[in-house]
Amino acid sequence: MVMYNKAVLDNGLRVITSTMPHSRSVCLAILVGAGSCYESKEEAGISHFAEHLFFKGTQRRPTSKEITQDIEG
């Protein structure tokens, strides 16, 4: 059974951590309780826009493959 700790930051962000003493690596997952079903009329489309920012690349890393390679090494 995996033991974990849960904390809530002042800004409401929930952080869950688990220690794996015999592992020399780190895993990070960002899970967001968001999406178009949570958007107001004024915010319509912001989740889709954020998705493109996260997965479609940047000027320095124009493809998702380059982002993945930089993250994974």
Automatic annotation (TrEMBL):
Q: Name one GO molecular function term.
A: metal ion binding
Q: Which residues form the Peptidase M16 N-terminal domain?
A: 14-72
SUPFAM superfamilies in UniProt: LuxS/MPP-like metallohydrolase (SSF63411)
Pfam families reported for this sequence: Peptidase_M16
Q: Which residues form a coiled coil?
A: none
Name the family.
Belongs to the peptidase M16 family.
What name has this protein been given in UniProt?
Peptidase M16 N-terminal domain-containing protein
